[in-house]
Amino acid sequence: METIKTVDDFINWRENQTVNIGFIPTLGALHRGHLSLIQSSKAQCDLTVVSIFLNPTQFAPSEDLNSYPNTLEQDVLHLKKLEVDILFLPTVEEMYQRASDVSVPTTPLFTKLEGKSRPHFFHGVTTIVAKLFNVIQPTHTFFGEKDAQQLYIIQQMIKDMNYAIELIPCVTIRDENGLALSSRNQYLAKEDQLKASIIYIGLMHIKDALERGQKNPIILKQSFETILHQTCEIKIDYISIATVATLDEVVEIPNETILISTAVFLNNVRLIDNFIYSSSTT
């Protein structure tokens, strides 16, 4: 594996490549979810590039930029074991002073769900992903379904900015108790990670109710809240039942694909999870 740290050096490398290139952008603190994205890229593309860049513009002043897990040495070992071709490891100066500026069109999706709780977030995400796309020039990019709203927004950005990039969604990777893997799980003690599995239990309770024919979103949300309130350390930021196309909340379960998603705090650690549901599949 080759490590490239500057935009100019990467562009020089990229100019000599004519094959398919898969790209996975990360903040570091890699876990099995990230590794599954890399494995998907390895299976579908000739070359795989992974970036590790802790992007400051997607963190609000009150959030955990300064304490975000830094496991670079372990991350590099994971990438070498998977035989990643290139690790792109730029500095903030490289990405925000040397990489070309971009202007990413916003969409109403920016202001829903995560965007409502974290208004800065998707502006920071789309800016840095667009900058990385401009440098990496991948043919394919791989994003996890755990961050469903982010995935939809990047899909829209690719379309709006006419990138010749195919986005490949990858399934959420979970631990044995159902907890969706996240770098922020490292903030939690083992017993708290076990408690956090109730998030998945609550979501599956909604899924079971949907499959039994429950069509009232209010009742479905209340059932989720009842289950999660069994764990007093958990505070619900939101529980959403929304159309995939617009992320608008539904007033009755429609005959189309919907996203059931949630964000919760467990001992001040923010965790998200979701699942997709379509009545046509039942």
Topology:
Layout: E1 2-4, H1 7-14, E2 21-26, H2 32-44, E3 47-52, H3 72-81, E4 86-88, H4 92-98, H5 114-117, H6 121-136, E5 140-144, H7 148-160, E6 166-170, H8 190-196, H9 198-211, H10 217-228, E7 234-243, E8 258-266, E9 269-277
Parallel strand pairs: 1-4, 2-3, 2-5, 3-4, 5-6
Antiparallel strand pairs: 7-8, 8-9
Helix pairs in contact: 6-7, 9-10
Structural notes for this entry:
There is one protein chain. With 282 residues, the chain is an alpha/beta fold. It has two domains: 2-170, HUPs (Rossmann fold), CATH 3.40.50.620; 183-275, Pantoate--beta-alanine Ligase, Chain: A,domain 2. Helices cover 37% and strands 20% of the residues. The protein contains ten helices and nine strands. It has helices at 7-14, 32-44, 72-81, 92-98, 114-117, 121-136, 148-160, 190-196, 198-211, 217-228, and strands at residues 2-4, 21-26, 47-52, 86-88, 140-144, 166-170, 234-243, 258-266, 269-277. It has a six-stranded parallel sheet with strand order 1-4-3-2-5-6, with helices on both faces. Helix 3 links the parallel strand 3 (47-52) and strand 4 (86-88). Helix 6 (121-136) crosses helix 7 (148-160) and helix 9 runs antiparallel to helix 10. The longest helix has 16 residues, at 121-136. The chain is globular. The termini are far apart.
